[in-house]
Records
---
Amino acid sequence: MDDKFIQELRDTHPEDKRRPELLIQGMKDTLQERKELNVFKRWLWRQRNKRKLTDRFKR
């Protein structure tokens, strides 16, 4: 998500009717950016996140 989206989300009131639409559009944009990444970068992104998850649940 870009800084413009984050700032616009912060500026909207929690009870504003436009806020859910803004959140949905932000998630769609984020997913589209991930899809546009090449295969190697997507693989690296998944590997980093898997490590973070497994480290959190180790005791």
---
Amino acid sequence: MSILTHGFDRPFGAKRPARISEARKAQLKRVALQALGLLSMGSVLTALIALRTAIHVWHLPA
């Protein structure tokens, strides 16, 4: 079957069976939220390091 027409034999808006279980979906959501929190903490740490470096450079004698 052609890639362009694959899946067009189904009526539009037809319900598809769930591909992953609700428990797996909840686990993936927890992992995604933890990854987002980790990335957020990393970006805050990077911003603090950049701020401290900028202050240090600002105080250097010209």
---
Amino acid sequence: MKLLILDAGHCLSLALVREASRRSDTELVIEVGLALDAGRLEEIAPDALVIPPLARPISAEPAAVTAHAEAVEACMEACLAADVPLVWCVSDQLYQDGFEAPIDEHVIPAPRDESLRRLVATGARIRAEHPRHLIVRLGPLFALEGSNAWLNELIDTLVAGGELRGESDVTFCPTSADAVAMALIGMLQQQHCGAGAWGSYHLAGTEPVSAYTFISMVRTQLATRLEGRGERLELGGVKALHHHHDQPLRRVLNCRRVLAVFGVHQKPWRLELGRMLDAWCRANDRSRSDAEVEE
């Protein structure tokens, strides 16, 4: 199976590269940006085109959101012309006001923000015009490398002694980019073998948590690992923010359909976070050793 991945530096694109490198049944072709025409698509002839999500669209500049939406629609048109399936990953922030209960796949986002509505319109076009599509709505992605990786930003700030801030009244399900990559390739392998299960799916980590609690957990686990290695480092602090005083916001994706259709289980974010922090500590140890050798 050959996949064409756009936005080469995105944390999800890098995770797909890592996952594909461990397999013998998946070939990746990576494009730097989101621009793609039908000629290039026909030349590569992939079994699917994968577009990583625009991270944190709520806080993104409206022009950036519009540009992303337009690029996705241009890709959809190219996919239609070349008869190539389209996979578009989308942030859970499109459910701007959240829901009391976990959000099912059939619930179409209806945000108040005009920029977010532009992304919803793109999703509507894909559902109406391209039968062979997967729209995969994701919880907040975290990874150690790549753009929009989030976790690397948190670690860098803590190590530099800076303060992190997170909402204590916004609940979501942090999602490992590596887990998403593994799930996407598994889903597309089944589609490549004729599953024909096109449509919208939700994919997120287990255990809903507030932004503040997640960031606090990053700090606690990082401090524990550094202390265990005998490193004395004063990490920055974490401050709770309160943006939804009257009604805490819950943005929790119901991921039962991806399990029922593809057999994809959600990965616990705590385990994924611990694994990534272990990897960061090992890389940090190697960097220090190399620096000592050079001295």
---
Amino acid sequence: MNVYRVDADLAYGTLVFAHSPKTQSGEEAQLRIWNKEFSDWDHHCETVGWLAPPIGYGTRNQARALPLDAVRLALGPEHNLLLSARARALLSPLLLPNGRFLPVRWEGHDYAIFECTALADVADPGGIEGERSEYRPGCWTRVDRWSFHPDRLATAPAIFTVPQDPFIRMCTDVFRDAVAAHDLLGFAFKPLWSEADGGVLIDNSPGQFMGEAGRQMAIAAKERRRAMLAILKARERQARIKPQQS
């Protein structure tokens, strides 16, 4: 059994809220509500009266987000995962018991935020390495190495958060294997813990983004993006060929 952090890969671009002078007054009010809901540490946004806000690309010098099955939205970590209609349909049996979909408007695309609401008591606080929060009992402000109870993970949700850091989406092999089996693109799974080797040491230092380390990270991201673009072009060619064969 393994535990992973679940995100959308930043190498494939990021989307942002589309604040625009053309936005209708009702939508502007809803966007303010959105920002308040998502900035509140202890609050999950309400779906009653939900008005799907427009989203779009960032600044001109940023790489355009690729329309993959998982796309990053520039929000707090617990609400930054956008899923395509295909991903939602294929993963619904694993996602819906543990969260909900919050639709957004991205012109020409069908996407929704996945908000994970499953809080699983599966981590082992006694084995976690890092810095505890002074203001939130039972929480960590920084985790350097995670620890989990293997027996609890056996019955854990496919995707979940933990009380020690409720803003990180986690999953077991069940969810990761489902993503791979359906050939869904754009997900990033960062190993956190394995039953065989225990917790993975997490580099929380800002130095990982600077100097030579940062340069190598940027090169790796460009290579992943280039490889993904090749995959998308191959799929487009295959899609054009199929109608001709039928």
